[in-house]
């Protein structure tokens, strides 16, 4: 059992900590609004992902068989949403100098991002099929609890990194470059959705 818990934890860590759109928004939120306010996004994204994991763990993956176009629709809607966020981020020049002010962190936007994020769907489906298929409800609950804790800690670390960078990079020119770099990351994430 300890080996299984370690394996589940490493899977959750790799899926949660690796750069992706939700993590970039956590970084951006910490950078522009500080850690406390960024935790709204972190909490929403973690709970949104956990709800997705619970539903997939309880058999919702059969929905894709019923609605074959669900994955394709999710891919295009998610890509559009990421591109819209990248556009807004690329236009942000920093506190007090925005052409387009960055959206403040939101619980609901964080949760919505997970539901529009194909990476979250794939990680949920893969994790459930690998770790809980033969283990029953107790193993599913264990996987969900581990993933919740690791996901929250991972996203919070991105927000903390943003808050720390925000204290050091308050010069407008540096913020512009950092915002554009994060926007480019979101564009790459959006375009990579087409490869899934």
TrEMBL record:
List the transmembrane segments: 48-66, 137-165, 177-195
Organism superkingdom = Bacteria
Q: What high-level taxonomic lineage is stated for the organism?
A: Bacteria, Pseudomonadati, Pseudomonadota, Gammaproteobacteria, Oceanospirillales
Q: Which UniProt keywords apply?
A: Cell membrane, Membrane, Transmembrane, Transmembrane helix
The membrane topology noted for this protein in its Swiss-Prot or TrEMBL record is: Multi-pass membrane protein
Which InterPro entries does the entry mention?
LeuE-type
Q: Does the keyword Transmembrane helix apply?
A: yes
Q: Give the protein name, as stated in the record.
A: LysE family translocator
Where is this protein found? Cell membrane
The protein's matches in PANTHER family, at most eight in alphabetical order, are given as: ARGININE EXPORTER PROTEIN ARGO, ARGININE EXPORTER PROTEIN ARGO-RELATED
Q: Which organism is this protein's natural source? A: Kushneria aurantia
The UniProt record lists the keyword Membrane: yes
């Amino acid at each position: 059992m300890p080996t299984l818990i370690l394996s589940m934890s490493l899977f959750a860590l790799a899926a949660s900590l690796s750069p992706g759109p939700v993590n970039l928004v956590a970084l951006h939120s910490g950078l522009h609004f500080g850690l406390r306010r960024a935790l709204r996004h972190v909490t929403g994204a973690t709970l949104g992902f956990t709800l997705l994991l619970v539903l997939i763990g309880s058999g919702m993956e059969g929905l894709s068989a019923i609605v074959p176009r669900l994955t394709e629709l999710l891919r295009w809607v998610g890509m559009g949403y990421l591109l819209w966020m990248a556009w807004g981020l690329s236009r942000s020049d920093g506190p007090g100098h925005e052409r387009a002010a960055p959206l403040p962190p939101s619980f609901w936007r964080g949760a919505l991002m997970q539901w529009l994020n194909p990476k979250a769907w794939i990680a949920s489906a893969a994790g459930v099929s690998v770790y809980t298929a033969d283990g029953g409800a107790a193993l599913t609950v264990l996987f969900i609890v581990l993933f919740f804790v690791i996901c929250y800690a991972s996203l919070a670390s991105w927000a903390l990194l943003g808050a720390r960078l925000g204290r050091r990079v308050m010069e407008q020119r540096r913020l512009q470059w950092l915002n554009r770099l994060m926007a480019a990351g979101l564009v790459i994430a959006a375009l990579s959705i087409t490869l899934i």
